[in-house]
Amino acid sequence: MASSTGLSLKFSPLSTSFKQNKVRGICNVNSVSLPSRGMRLGSLRLRVSCAAKPETVDKVCSIVRKQLALPKDSPVTGESKFSALGADSLDTVEIVMGLEEEFGISVEEESAQHILTVQDAADLIEKLVEQKSA
Amino acid sequence: MSLKFNPITYQSHKLPSFALPPMANLRSPKFFMASTLRSGYKEVDNPKKPFMPPREVHVQVTHSMPPQKIEIFKSLEDWAENNILTYLKPVEKCWQPHDFLPDPASDGFYEQVKELRERAKEIPDDYFVVLVGDMITEEALPTYQTMLNTLDGVLDETGASLTSWAIWTRAWTAEENRHGDLLNKYLYLSGRVDMRQIEKTVQYLIGSGMDPRTENNPYLGFIYTSFQERATFISHGNTARHAKELGDIKLAQICGNIASDEKRHETAYTKIVEKLFEIDPDGTVLAFADMMRKKISMPAHLMYDGRDDNLFDNFSAVAQKLGVYTARDYADILEFLVNKWRVMEITGLSAEGRKAQDYVCGLAPRIRRLEERAQGRAKQAPKVPFSWIFDREVQL
User: Fold this and answer.
1) How close B334 gets to chain A, by Cα (Å)?
2) Which of A88, B237, B270, B279 is paired with B131 by a 20 to 30 Å CA distance?
3) Number of domains comprising chain B
4) What is the pLDDT of residues B166-211, one digit of tens each?
């Protein structure tokens, strides 16, 4: 999953695989600034990431903390990997259940398999919440 | 939820260090199984590498019990003679498969066979799938005797060792042997199933073996067998009840007698672990938590019939649907053992021991909650063919 690198937003209409229906303020489109000599626009691919709102990430962190009974001072951030935090397979299933309950969503197996970090979970949640209200 | 859960313990750099494991429809106890790897999906393409049946993918750990603890089992031999061997039934008092099958030496043989087949016609395919799966599990007995003989301190060193443990293992094996024989002969005579496919499945399964992750450690080993014997007791008890409801009293007796053996065995194994809790509470509670974390894998989880890569999952789903053996049973067994061994009351544990105690005592409710959620979200499952019944389909 692409992550925001803070590059300036340059949206090239020629070579995008990005379907833009709704651009929310949280979506960052990364582009590569074209060097002046001959880079073919056709070969450019935009990688789009929709990074979740910080509040979502925070909610995920707190659900994870609760499930794993982590002490208050132990670091849990977007980058935290579930396995590194000590979650076993049962914990992870329960975490996802907790997220489903908290956000009113239903997580499909295929999506769940790609959740490695807190950020991944938050991003998926936002996507599912958006789909639900669409 | 519709998540699938199959705990992946595969240690490969190719897999992400963590991925939310796919959850089998929580309608099956597969949730609690070690994952398996199929090395091929179809018939052999490459003659140089003949198809390999499913094999375990987790790293196989050995001899995790500190060697000084072997002494414990040596010192318990007299105790075992007086307290465990008493659960064996003398051969002269045991039922034999002959007692529940048409008698070939009698004039009424053909008539008896006809009756058996007529009763079997009334029994639906999904029941037969479960009965066949149970039979195949029983027929893989060589794997289980082997497993008992991997346990340090209690293994049969020569095949005819006279330690109480070795005597137990051989006699236990001998009792169990009748189960597979009886079910095999019944299924053979019934005419309702494809014996060749079943026989193939048995051959594959014995070839695959299994690693229940007991690590040559009798603490882990006897906790595992305690759980398993109760599981088979429940399972055969349910098939007995179903057979009765379906009007086949003889089949009900068959399953019922097998179930009562399993109950007796369960009592013996739980008694061993009870003793271990008494003399080494910390070590035993740690072992209990360890086995539960690793999940109790079903003995036949590597089953394969040469055609279906998801055979065990499909079989489990049918067993779950029929209520023969379910995820709820798994939680119930766990709770039964926690109570039987009075894990909550143990004191004087180390810090690790207390964590293990908390884990084990809190686990059954968590499993039940998961199971309830999954049931609430269960989607319509497909119908799948089983080669054991000539590719007729059964609703999962």
Assistant:
1) 15
2) B270
3) 1
4) 999 999 999 999 999 999 999 999 999 999 999 999 999 999 999 9
* Pairwise CA distance, residues B294 & B365, whole Å: 17
Rounded Cα distance between B315 and B128, Å, is 11
Q: Which two tokens stand for residue B219?
A: 């603490």
> Smallest Cβ distance to A116: which of B1, B16, B366?
B16
pLDDT in tens, B86-119: 999 999 999 999 999 999 999 999 999 999 999 9
Assigned domain for B46 exists: no
Task: Tell me the chain B residues in contact with residue A86 when contact means C-beta distances shorter than 8 Å.
Answer: none
Whether residue B8 lies within 8 A of chain A, CB to CB, comes out as yes
Domain span at residue B330 reads: 67-91+109-395
- What is the CATH classification number for the domain harbouring B198? 1.10.620.20
Instruction: Please provide residue A50's backbone torsions phi and psi, each rounded to the nearest 5 degrees.
Output: -110, 95
Within-domain flag for B38:
no
Q: In which band, very low, low, confident or very high, does the pLDDT at B303 lie, cut at 50, 70 and 90?
A: very high
- The alpha-carbon radius of gyration of chain B (Å, integer) is 21
Task: Select from A83, A88, A100 the Cβ nearest to the Cβ of B17.
Answer: A83
Distance separating alpha carbons of residues A12 and A10, to the nearest angstrom: 6
Answer whether A109 touches B (CB < 8 Å). yes
The lowest-confidence range among A60-74, B263-277, B299-313, B327-341 is A60-74
Cα torsion through B290, B280, B225, B167, rounded to 10: 150
